[in-house]
Every structure is written in C-alpha cells, then in structure tokens.
From TrEMBL:
One of its GO terms (biological process) is GPI anchor biosynthetic process. It comes from Hypothenemus hampei. One of its GO terms (cellular component) is membrane. It comes from the Eukaryota. Residues 48-137 form the PIGA GPI anchor biosynthesis domain. This is phosphatidylinositol N-acetylglucosaminyltransferase. Pathway: Glycolipid biosynthesis; glycosylphosphatidylinositol-anchor biosynthesis. Keywords: Glycosyltransferase, GPI-anchor biosynthesis, Transferase.
Length: 250
C-alpha cells in the first residue's frame, strides 16, 4: 500500500457522475476529495468524458481529474464491459501509485469496473452506495447483479443511511458486517436559519432534490397537495430541477 511516514494514502475516486454534471453524488465526491486533500492525502478522480471535456483537468487545491475518452451508453453511464478499459484504468492506477480505489454509486458501471481492476492489482477497494434501488424491474435486476459481482471482493462498503444499508445488503448479497453507515452531513456554517425571522403563523417545509422519479417526486407532489389542503398555514419551498419539475410547480 502506498503511503508516506505521515500515514497519508493515494486514493482514486471513480464514478460516472462528476462535474460538470450536477447532483448529490457529484457534490459528495468533490467535497470528500477536498476534505481528504486537507488531511494531506493524495486524491485523483476518474470519470468519463463530458462532451469536449477530455483528458486531465485540475480543480481546487490541485484536485486532479481524469476525463477518460469513453462514450456514454445510457443515463450518463458507460457501457458495463467490466474489462474493456483495463489498460487505461490500470495505467492510471500505476502512474498515480494508487493504494485505495473508492467507487461511487451502484449505477456507475465505471466505478464497478475500476474496483474490479483494483482488486486484480491487489489494491484496497471501497464502495459508497448513495441511493435506494428496487428489486423487480429490469434496470434493478441488471444493476443488482452487477453490484453483487462487484461487492463480492470489495473490502468495505459505505451507505448514507441505515435503510440504505439494508437495501444494499439485500441487493448485493454482501455481509452486513462489511457495510458501515455514514449519514450525509449538513454544513451548518452555510445553512443557518434565523428563527427570529420566521412567521409564527406559517410553517415552511423545504425540499432540496433533483426532480426525477427516482427521488420520489411523484410522492412529494401528492403530499404537497394533501398537506396544503389540510393545513392552510403550511407552505413548501422546492429547490431543484429536473424532468418532474412540472409535478411540483402546479
């Protein structure tokens, strides 16, 4: 394992989802990488190309990002070949002297492929599952089988909630002892409501989310109608965008 006398590690974050695309996974990877850089670890990010963004780019604090010349297959993800990109990914791992491969999102084929290659190279692998998935539809069946193969040799898994842990353990057939829960955090320095500014006669419920089916927007829209009809003092503030925006804009 590559580390210096101070105990720092060379870490590679891998996912199909990263900037300039926007979303929770993208923000999580970026913020986690910045925190690790502050702890004196070396961090590089591997993702696929986004239009003309191909090659190596540098972000805040020298965060190095590899935008691989791989075309998107479906829903911002590359084709799950598992081994077709082994030459390119292996080269990056060796060039950057990577010790830990950290894959993000069960739907990211690139993350699964990188973790598999990392295992073949004898590297430590970590996987973070950010979302809940079902069991019955075609997409879930394919994704869950890929997840089961990938996690069979993964050293440790991270979920953002206890419900997410249960979901991942069942979908991936992974030992629950190899799964930890690290809840998503709220930066209280960036979000500090002032109670004195609140109208005591009104209750504002804030919803921050990508407005897509998988985030439960259809259920949210139904709840908004039911709650606002029953409680006149309640109002909703929606922050986000997506194809389901019309559902919560009526």
């Amino acid at each position: 394992m590559n580390y210096d006398s101070s105990g720092s590690h060379n870490i590679c974050m891998v996912s199909d989802f990263f900037f300039p695309n926007t979303g929770g996974v993208e923000e999580h990877i970026y913020n986690l990488s910045q925190c690790l850089l502050q702890k004196k670890h070396k961090v590089v990010i591997v993702t696929h190309s986004y239009e003309d963004r191909v090659g190596i780019r540098y972000m805040t604090n020298g965060l190095k990002v590899y935008y691989l010349p791989i075309k998107v297959f479906y829903n911002q993800c590359v084709l799950p070949t598992m081994l077709c990109n082994i030459g390119l990914i292996r080269y990056i791992f060796l060039r950057e002297q990577i010790a830990i491969v950290h894959g993000h999102s069960a739907f990211s084929a690139l993350a699964h492929e990188a973790m598999l290659i990392g295992n073949l190279l004898g590297l430590k692998t970590v996987f973070t599952d950010h979302s809940l998935f079902g069991f019955a539809d075609a997409s879930a069946i394919i994704t869950n089988k890929l997840l089961e193969i990938s996690l069979s040799s993964c050293n440790h898994c991270i979920c953002v909630s206890h419900t997410g842990k249960e979901n991942t353990v069942l979908r991936g057939q992974v030992d629950f002892k190899r799964v930890s829960v690290i809840p998503n955090a709220v930066d209280t320095f960036s979000f500090t409501p002032d109670p004195s500014q609140r109208d005591p006669n009104h209750i504002t419920i804030v919803v921050v989310s990508r407005l897509v089916y998988r985030k439960g927007v259809d259920l949210t829209a139904q709840l908004i109608g039911d709650i606002c009809h029953k409680y006149k003092e309640v109002e909703f503030l929606i922050a986000g965008d997506g194809p389901k925006r019309w559902k919560v804009s009526i």
